[in-house]
User: What shape does this take?
Amino acid sequence: MWTVIDSPIRELRLVEHEGSISAIEFSPFRPPGDDGRELGERDDDHPVLVEAARQLTSYFAGELQAFTLPLAPVGTPFQQRVWKELVAIGYGETASYGEIARRLGMTNAASRAVGLANGRNPVPVVIPCHRVIGADGSLTGYAGGVDRKQTLLDLERQDALF
Assistant: This one.
């Protein structure tokens, strides 16, 4: 099941599978099934999708800093480890790819692998891959585009000041 919501970073498609959020997609959306997975039917009233929409709306309004959604991102064991570390980056904070590698018990040389896993995060915003930046503080690539990444970081910085 899936639904679409409006947001400050343009429309988002929320995808549910077996009671958990499995993906959040940036517009423009790929056609359903284009990447080999089926989305199922659109269901704007599915309880998990309604709750995800509610929490995302609260987040974008600056009222929510931590999500409590059931998540089921599909990825390799390494990707899963990286995504778990992303969730540990606090609201309004950032970490470099190298920092994430070190938190995983790896050397800075694993930064590229961390970056690749970060880029494959199927549940952006909720799993906050936008909080990962270059070692020099630069906004490196983001699946949704650097403009979306900047918007999300700005939203969190404004709210973190108050």
